[in-house]
Amino acid sequence: MDVLIHLFVGLHIIGIAALLGGFLTQMKAMGRGTARFVPGMLHGALTMLVTGIVLVGLNQAEGHHVNTVKIGLKLALLIVILGLVYVKRDDEKVDKGMFGLVGLLTMANIFIAVLWT
After folding, report:
1. Phi, psi (deg, nearest 5) at residue 94
2. Helices in the chain by DSSP H: which ranges?
3. Alpha carbons 29 and 82: distance in angstroms, whole number
4. Which residues, other chains included, contact 64 with Cβ-Cβ below 8 Å and sequence gap of 6+?
């Protein structure tokens, strides 16, 4: 079971890398006002959602304590990110504020995962 949990942690990290990487590659365009949500950002957020749900289930099946407040907060942030990226995924340009909000929420999600023990 540990191997399976580690596999899904790796996939979860790949998802966050796709979401954050897509944001970082568009930062220069954000400065010009031409940033857009690239498909990798949506796919990364969806990967995070699926693998996160699986990880919670696997950890509970193993009898590990799961911090439901932390997981709930991370899920709420991810749902907001998914909503924003999904709704604006086909737009040629995204408002700087909305684009920056997605980056901020993504980084907040990372810091909650790493720092909240």
Report:
1. -120, 140
2. 2-25, 27-32, 39-61, 68-87, 96-115
3. 21
4. none
Shortest CA distance to 55 belongs to which of 115, 17, 6, 114? 6
Q: At what angle do helices 39-61 and 2-25 cross, to 10 degrees?
A: 160
* Whether the predicted model's global pTM rises above the 0.90 cut: yes
Give me 93's structure tokens: 């340009």
Distance CA 51, CA 7 (A): 10
Side-chain-side CA neighbours of 73 within 13 Å: the count stands at 12
Q: Tell me how far apart the alpha carbons of residues 71 and 68 are, in angstroms, rounded to a whole number.
A: 5
- Measured distance CA(88)–CA(71) in Å, rounded: 26
Rounded Cα distance, 16 and 18, in Å:
5
Report how far residue 88's alpha carbon sits from residue 108's, in angstroms, rounded to the nearest whole number. 21
Name the pLDDT band for 95 (thresholds 50, 70, 90).
Answer: very high
